[in-house]
Protein 1
Amino acid sequence: MWSIGGEFWNGPRRGVTAMDVRTSRFGVIEIAEDRVITFEKGLLGFPDCTRFCLLEPGEDACFFWLQSLDDPALAFVVTDPAMFVSGYEATIRPEQAESIGLEHLGDAQVFVIVNKVEHWLTGNLQGPLVINTKARQATQLVLADKRWTTRHELVEIGSQLQEAISA
């Protein structure tokens, strides 16, 4: 549905203050302060972790890391569900949109947290993340729509990829 907003997700820009962030997976990384995404209420199960950044492993990546700036060990693999699930919609109520300063749906990016279950990568389609790309404010929704599950199969992992992940 919505695509990633160009340089919003890239590294620090000239003239923007950067900060060093310690991570358990990537070591110390430099993040521009204007790239910090704030989840005012945290994520489900992690209410004290409110500041995150989105790490893009490559230009054509379809999976990203949502790295906590509050806990170096906390990072989630996320993806745009529209890349894998046709017809997926995350309905956001007016008060939820207002809480992240979202005035236009075109300023939103939807992600879902990805998990590995047996030979599948699954997405939590019941708990999508909605990010206001302009204000860098975000929220995690809880959808009541029973078409979507917390472990919706996105893509089957091939045997070579399976071996690489297990290594």
Protein 2
Amino acid sequence: MATTADFKNGLCIEYNNDLYTIVGFQHVKPGKGSAFVRTKLKNLKTGRVIENTFNSGVKITTARIERRPHQYLYNDDMGYHFMDNSTFEQVGLQKELIDGHQFLKEGDGVDVIYHAETEMPLSVELPSFVELKIVYTEPGVKGDTATNATKPAKLETGAELQVPLFINQDEIIKVDTRTATYSERVK
């Protein structure tokens, strides 16, 4: 059991007979009335984000979760397949459980989050940044714009995102998987 004072981003709680993780929270103390905590909760099974308000000091049941390192193997019509790095067992997961699945390439290391009591996989977390090769992009024209111009680029995983004009085909770039944006060129 925990209270609203124990809230932090990433905390997994049981709410409405489902598992949620706290994406964001804000403690509010209005001039009149009692304090409360405004939260954004992400359902670990469906991925849907809801907003909820808890009165300050309310007891919340926390769920025990474990992060286990896995390696991405491949995907097919049955889902995405990962191998546990310690037991070498394979687990197949649906695309909905993976944030940023379009940036996965074979051999990448990820963390699979399990519910500790039921041993059920809840979600997959990619590293914050991944390095990917650009397989196709139009050449940028020098002097084409004043500032911050971007162009579409196709990555080796099949994903597409916007990159600056100076990025060329066959270059390796660093991608932020949390926001699905270009970060920097890898030298």
Protein 3
Amino acid sequence: MRLPELRAAVLEANLELVRRGLVLYTFGNASGIDRAAGLVVIKPSGVDYDQLTPADMVITDLEGRPVEGTLRPSSDLPTHLRLYREFPAVGGVAHTHSNYATAWAQAGRSIPCLGTTHADYFHGPVPVTAPLADQAIAAGYEAETGTAICRALEGLNPDHIPGALVHGHGPFSWGRDPAAAAHHAVILEAIAQMAYQTLVLSGDSAAHAAPLARALHDKHFLRKHGASAYYGQPS
């Protein structure tokens, strides 16, 4: 994707977060990467969404050095950069403070897979990071947030778990491009709400809200994302 197209795609991903009610005021951000050029496009910090244009998107290299744009990039840029460096298949990252996913993050709880909606998109629970130590917060908060996400994904396939909760903070999601990252942010909020409501109805009892059976979980995920996927239409 050429840079002008990537700027437009990143703006559209940010606006999708607004349309879906996942951000308030200037909360949240989405970004995309041009792997060939080694450049990242991200929303500027603290600018109202209704004022944004493609030209406002900030371009940096993978070290966070500005390449194009006069506005300051999102303060979460180092988190995005850490994910891009760690996960080479990721082409877009989104971050919100959406209500239900953030509530799970604030509770320090991963989101269990309780139903097939979750299983359609996440091949396992949505992980939550460990709390950041005081030293990590002081040394480089945003970069250390990215490191915490990577640790929470150790042993997992980020293509199969396209999002995580940062303890006490909120959700980050990712995908093959900025649109997919925003899409996963919307799905993550939906399954966070469903899981919360399920546990409320069951009295937060494992006896009444056990994780989805593994065979059914696998079936729903793999029929959409597996090697023999048959959901939807051929490309």
